[in-house]
C-alpha cells in the first residue's frame, strides 16, 4: 500500500510540501448526480422554481467552490485556478440533473479536490434551490472522472473502477 503523504512519521496530519515539485498544467474533471421527482425536474426545465434560476445559481456556486477549496478542506493547498466550469445535463431516465465540473491550473499540485468540491457544492445548491418542493432528492455518484498533469500522470475513471 502507498504511504499516505498527509501523515508524518508519527501519524499526525500535515500539509504536504510541494515546493520541490515541477510546475505543470493540471486539469481535473468530476461528476455528480441529483436525483429528483419528475415534477421537481419540470420546475427546473420551465424555470419556475420559486428561488430563481436553479442551474445559473448552482453554476456560480460550483465555480466559487473550486476557487475556495482550500478554505473548506484543511490540507488542500490554495491554488491559482485558471479555469473552472460547471455544466448540467437534464436526465429523464434516471430523473435528475447530471453535474460535471472541470478545473485547471498551472501549479505544483493537482486540482482533483477543486473539481470534486465544485461538483459537490453545485449539487448541494440544486438541492437547496429545490428543497421546498422535494426534501428527498438524492445526491449521488460524486467522483473524479479524469485528471492530468503531475507526477502520477493521466487518470481516467471507468464504471468499474479506475485505470491509468
Question: If you had to describe this structure to a student in words, what would you say it looks like?
Answer:
The chain has 164 residues and is α+β, with helices and mostly antiparallel strands. It has one domain (24-147): Molybdopterin cofactor biosynthesis C (MoaC) domain (Alpha-Beta Plaits), CATH 3.30.70.640. It has 4 helices and 6 strands; from the N terminus they run βαααββαβββ. It has helices at 38-46, 54-67, 69-72, 112-130, and strands spanning 24-35, 81-92, 95-107, 138-148, 155-158, 161-163. The protein has a 6-stranded antiparallel beta sheet with strand order 2-3-1-4-5-6. Strand 4 (138-148) and strand 5 (155-158) form a beta hairpin. Helix 2 (54-67) runs antiparallel to helix 4.
Summarize the structure.
With 164 residues, the protein is of the alpha+beta class. The chain has helices at residues 38-46, 54-67, 69-72, 112-130; strands at 24-35, 81-92, 95-107, 138-148, 155-158, 161-163. A six-stranded antiparallel β-sheet has the order 2-3-1-4-5-6.
Amino acid at each position: 500500500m502507498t504511504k499516505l503523504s498527509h501523515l508524518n512519521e508519527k501519524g499526525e496530519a500535515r500539509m504536504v510540501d510541494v515546493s520541490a515539485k515541477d510546475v505543470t498544467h493540471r486539469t481535473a474533471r468530476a461528476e455528480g448526480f441529483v436525483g429528483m421527482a419528475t415534477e421537481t425536474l419540470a420546475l427546473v426545465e420551465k424555470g419556475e422554481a420559486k428561488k430563481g434560476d436553479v442551474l445559473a445559481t448552482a453554476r456560480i456556486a460550483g465555480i466559487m467552490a473550486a476557487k475556495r477549496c482550500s478554505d473548506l478542506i484543511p490540507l488542500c493547498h490554495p491554488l491559482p485556478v485558471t479555469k473552472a466550469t460547471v455544466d448540467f445535463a437534464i436526465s429523464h431516465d434516471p430523473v435528475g440533473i447530471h453535474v460535471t465540473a472541470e478545473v485547471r491550473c498551472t501549479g505544483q499540485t493537482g486540482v482533483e479536490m477543486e473539481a470534486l468540491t465544485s461538483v459537490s457544492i453545485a449539487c448541494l445548491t440544486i438541492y437547496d434551490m429545490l428543497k421546498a418542493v422535494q426534501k428527498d432528492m438524492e445526491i449521488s455518484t460524486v467522483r473524479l472522472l479524469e485528471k492530468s498533469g503531475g507526477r502520477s500522470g493521466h487518470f481516467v475513471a471507468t464504471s468499474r473502477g479506475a485505470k491509468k
